[in-house]
Specification:
It contains ten helices and 16 strands. It is α/β, with parallel strands linked by helices and 336 residues long. Helix 8 links the parallel strand 13 and strand 14. Bound molecules: nicotinamide-adenine-dinucleotide and zinc ion (2 copies).
Length: 336
Amino acid sequence: MDGPARNEVRVRMAAAGVCHSDLHVVDGEWERPTGVVLGHEGAAWVESLGEGVTGLEVGDLVVLAWTAPCTTCPACERGEPWLCATPDGAGHRLSRELQRLHRATGEPIGAYSGIGTFGEHQVVARSAAIKVDPRTPPEIAALIGCAVTTGIGAVRNTAQVQAGESVTVIGLGGVGLSAVMGAAAAGGHPITAIDTSPAKLELAVQAGAHRTLLATEAAQAAGADHVLECIGLVETVELAIDLLRPGGTVTLVGMTPQGHRASFDVYRLVEDGKRIVGSNYGSAVPARDFPRIAIDFLEGRLPLDLLVTERIRLEDLDSAFAAMRRGDGARRVIVY
Ligand SMILES: NC(=O)c1ccc[n+]([C@@H]2O[C@H](COP(=O)([O-])OP(=O)(O)OC[C@H]3O[C@@H](n4cnc5c(N)ncnc54)[C@H](O)[C@@H]3O)[C@@H](O)[C@H]2O)c1
Ligand SMILES: [Zn+2]
Ligand SMILES: [Zn+2]
């Protein structure tokens, strides 16, 4: 491992969650350059600072952002850093030009989204390392790096759910359960949670759902102000549009294998004035939203600990992916 070079930080990983966006790559559903250290949901301690780094000290607890905005492209200038065209870490390298990891033979190895959290150490862009309250448990901090910010941000920032609006969440993995918590914190009512797994429905009640339905019963949820799809299946994307009330908003969070297309009845959608919105990284600004979410957890407003199904070791990664394929468990978190 080289570095850290200018505006980079070397970190020691504290914890890393296993997200379905890693599994999409493992299963060949998303094309990514190899070899690459996967993992994009992590928290770490700062080990050393490259030249020019300000605002961080050795020993700080940081949540790693999988989009580290460049701050100067048109999207960043519009205040939409989740759409940054040239983030640090683009192309699954540790910095825009260079890879910091090499095999023993010298051949470079990438890092997923520039942070590759399935490894004990990394060198990341300064802009990817967001300091949070050091009282945040590392496994909770790790989940803030993806599932939590994605789910809560989809509710708060993308859909902008208001108190008293009804919210239906389809798919209750780490992302969907976070969306349920975000909806509860926003005062959504009633909140309906849908999954194929009865165990997930129980977790959703703890997360704040007022009503739960097995996927086979989903039609009972028709008429919601907001529907959030948190799986990434064409059939549930189409279901989400059908479950919406006229004038309501569907927020698509789950991501399908690349190239999948969904369809809808154009006449009905137009006549019913429905809206379909995509939500990338919860439309979040990491430097603003990560520390706030950590405080919401520490002050008891978000029960994020119920997302941690099991603490595992790096060696257990393959069994964690196997469990995720079965829909078993909310999040498995590697504790280093
Ligand atoms: N938009 C973003 O920025 C963003 C960020 C992170 C993850 N994601 C995507 O969000 C999706 C969810 O991620 P995750 O880590 O929570 O996944 P996960 O595998 O942990 O959860 C998926 C859930 O869907 C349920 N499910 C599967 N098929 C179903 C069906 N037909 N009907 C109802 N429920 C069903 C499973 O039981 C499981 O609870 C993935 O596609 C992931 O790539 C998107
Ligand atoms: Zn993720
Ligand atoms: Zn940018």
